[in-house]
Amino acid sequence: MVRAGMGKYTFIITEKPDAAQRIASALDLKGKAKRMEENGVPYYIAERDRQIIVVPAIGHLYTVAEEKSGRNYYPVFNFRWVPRYMAERGAKQIRAWLETISKLAKDADTYVDACDYDIEGSIIGYCILKYACGNKERVAKRMKYSTLTKEELEKSYKELLPKLDFALIEAGRTRHEIDWLYGVNLSRALTIAAKDWSGKYATLSTGRVQGPTLRFLVAREKAIRCFVPTPYWQIRAEIEIGGQVFEAEYEKDVIETKKEANAIVEACKEKDGVVENIEVKKFQQMPPTPFDIGTLQSEAYSLFGYTPRRTLDIAQRLYLDALISYPRTSSQKLPPAINYEAILKNLSGVSEYKKLAAELLSKKELKPNEGKKEDPAHPAVYPTGNLPERVLEEPERRIWDLVVRRFMAVFGEPAIRQSLKVCINIDGQRFFLRGRQTLKEGWLRFYEPYVRSEEVLLPPLEEGQRLKARKIILEDKFTKPPPRYNPGSLLKKMEEAGIGTKATRADIIQTLYDRKYVRDERMVVTDLGFEVLEVLKRHCPPIVSIGLTKKLEERMDKIQANQEKRENVLLDAIEILKPVVEELKAKEKTIGEQLSNAIKRARLEERIVGQCPLCGTGVLMILYSRKTGKRFIGCTNFFKKQCNAAFPLPQRGTARPLWRNCRGCGWPTVQVRIKGRRPWNLCFNPKCPLKEERRTVEMHHMR
Amino acid sequence: MKCTICGREAVENGYCELHARAYQSIVKKYEVWRKALEISWKEYLSEIVKNPFTGEWAKEVAEYLIKIGEEEGGT
Question: What is the ipTM metric for this complex?
Answer without folding.
Answer: 0.96
